[in-house]
Amino acid sequence: AYERRFPTCPLIPMFVASDTVNEYKSEDEAIHVIERRCKLDIDAPRLLKKIAGVDYVYFVQKNSLNRRERTLHIEAYNETFSNRVIINEHCCYTVHPDNEDWTCFEQSASLDIKSFFGFESTVEKIAMKQYTSNIKKGKEIIEYYLKQLEEEGITFVPRWTPPIACKLESSTTHTRRPVSPAINIPDSATKEGLNNKEILNTSSSPSEPTAGTPDDKLDADYIKRYLGDLTPMQESCLIQLRQWLQETHKGKIPKDEHILRFLRARDFNIDKAREILCQSLTWRKQHQVDYILDTWNPPQVLQDYYAGGWHHHDKDGRPLYVLRLGQMDTKGLVRALGEEALLRYVLSINEEGLRRCEENTKVFGRPISSWTCLVDLEGLNMRHLWRPGVKALLRIIEVVEANYPETLGRLLILRAPRVFPVLWTLVSPFIDDNTRKKFLIYAGNDYQGPGGLLDYIDKEIIPDFLGGECMCEVPEGGLVPKSLYRTAEELENEDIKLWTETIYQSASVFKGAPHEVLIQIVDASSVITWDFDVCKGDIVFNIFHSKRSPQPPKKDSLGAHSITSPGGNNIQLIDKVWQLGRDYSMVESPLICKEGESVQGSHVTRWPGFYILQWKFHSMPACATTNLPRVDDVLASLQVSSHKCKVMYYTEVIGSEDFRGSMTSLESSHSGFSQLSAATTSSSQSHSSSMISR
């Protein structure tokens, strides 16, 4: 029955095709090993596939049938991106030791993501989602083919027997194990069992929560006033989990409302709810989240440019949070504050939300355990899809989903532009299915019609920027001045780390003292990728190749430039005695980059050796017809104090087999997004290919 799923299986839509690579059969036909290369269409966001440059992924599957031992072992591993992601899966069909008429099935898998273009968490979630769905369908598929065989009249397959010669040799040493009497399997045992191990027998499934005894009851008035409608089973689960916390958990015990959120998030499965609740309590204690509202003051940049705030309540009494995401400069906030400060601010918003829920519960006299969020997307464009900004958003969603479950009662997304599906494709895999059901999305002015805002928010409190009469005190956002941007070192000095570190480095570039980065390439046709921002001044970007290694990096000795300041490092690698064309060669045309520009690109290497990325000070050219500088040149030069420039950069080397386009293909036309950009420049030479976008 298992072999019938090849070369393709209609019950597994993502299983497109398979080819036999190797096959082996023993002479006595007891052993049959077959190895296949399987083509899969993974259910991943289309944009992620575009970044990775693949439409399909390939796995190698090895099936080993041992008719003598009556076992079938299935091993699979990924061939695509094997240097970035390692997936191993093992399945086994065996005979039950107590009843030969029963079949046992075990399945296990491991996932190790080393790197994946900055989207490691997304890939992990997709892989876990695929694996979970495969587990659920595994038994359904095998039963489908068993039924198919029965319909064809095949209800029995003769057990393997050794050749006659073998029988004579082993007749004195082998005795057959007696067969246990047949046992009827109840319907409950044939339903879906454990995710990772399923035995078709009469053993009961994992115990489900049962209704408590009369002694386990909570006060009915207390439930109605603070918790809402609970079934006896749900009430019993709450009591059991609370008692367990009181007995085993050291530290602050959360309120019943908070425990109930975790139970609801796991459909009142006590074991699952206890696991995520304990993880969250440990996280809160580790990072002192309980005291964040009392001990942490948001930086002024957040107060001025973070376009979000609390605004009255909705018709159900839920606190209402308004976020004008389209007016917010996500890139500027990340550059000025770092991901840590943004995360702290979002955590403080959630803590404030919990406090407001408690207050509204008292005010309205009924349980209110969640809030409503209104997100205005007017102004959203490709700039908001800047890669590090999206990365920060995804990580924030992960933290919030893990520690504030069932706190979002409703999410109203208004004035969604055409670019919204791109953002949704990136974000949706991180959002729990139950949370996703609470989303209501309106394009254009649809929110003003039937089924719009008036169904959820009183007319008197609709914000003025949405055509209402209520003045909304939420900041309007706007572009964060580049003068507020800070380097990785400056952000690191604040010691506000919670869960991540920036991938960018900073460097200072002086007149006569460029900053250089050395990259050693062992395999030709590797891909060097880069992503940098010119924070101050104008620079020229170059790429050089040398067969011999430069001297160890040395810092510039020009004391007047204060190269050890937080502004960034300055390192020169190319020796003064080296000659261009003899000791090293230029592999890309020089690229002039203006202050404020973001540049992303890549270079496919032709030769192994040493590549040098160089950022050099760009001097203003004098007027062609006179030796006197132009007025514009003089004014421009005055803006660059002390002939100093500043860049923030990130580089990565990718194997050519894993690369399809720029590694930062998620950049806007103003900040990159090379493949989606309206203004993309590319350069190529006879011995190399590259892609550069601004």
UniProtKB/TrEMBL annotation:
Keyword Thylakoid annotated: no
Segments forming domain GOLD: 500-653
Localization terms from the record: Cytoplasm; Golgi apparatus
Molecular function per GO: RIG-I binding
Domain CRAL-TRIO: 298-474
Family annotation (Gene3D superfamilies): CRAL-TRIO lipid binding domain, GOLD domain
Record's keyword terms, sorted: Cytoplasm, Golgi apparatus, Immunity, Innate immunity, Phosphoprotein, Signal transduction inhibitor
GO cellular component, one term: cytosol
The organism's place on the tree of life at top rank: Eukaryota
PRELI/MSF1 domain ranges (all copies): 1-154
InterPro entries membership: CRAL-TRIO_dom (IPR001251), CRAL-TRIO_dom_sf (IPR036865), CRAL/TRIO_N_dom (IPR011074), CRAL/TRIO_N_dom_sf (IPR036273), GOLD_dom (IPR009038), GOLD_dom_sf (IPR036598), PRELI/MSF1_dom (IPR006797), SEC14/CRAL-TRIO_domain (IPR051064)
PROSITE patterns per UniProt: CRAL_TRIO, GOLD, PRELI_MSF1
One of the GO biological process terms: negative regulation of RIG-I signaling pathway
Quaternary structure annotation from Swiss-Prot or TrEMBL: Interacts with RIGI (via tandem CARD domain); the interaction is direct. Interacts (via GOLD domain) with SLC18A3; the interaction is direct. Interacts with SLC5A7 (via GOLD domain); the interaction is direct.
PANTHER family: SEC14 RELATED PROTEIN, SEC14-LIKE PROTEIN 1
Function: May play a role in innate immunity by inhibiting the antiviral RIG-I signaling pathway. In this pathway, functions as a negative regulator of RIGI, the cytoplasmic sensor of viral nucleic acids. Prevents the interaction of RIGI with MAVS/IPS1, an important step in signal propagation. May also regulate the SLC18A3 and SLC5A7 cholinergic transporters.
UniProt-recorded name of the protein: SEC14-like protein 1
Native species: Pedionomus torquatus
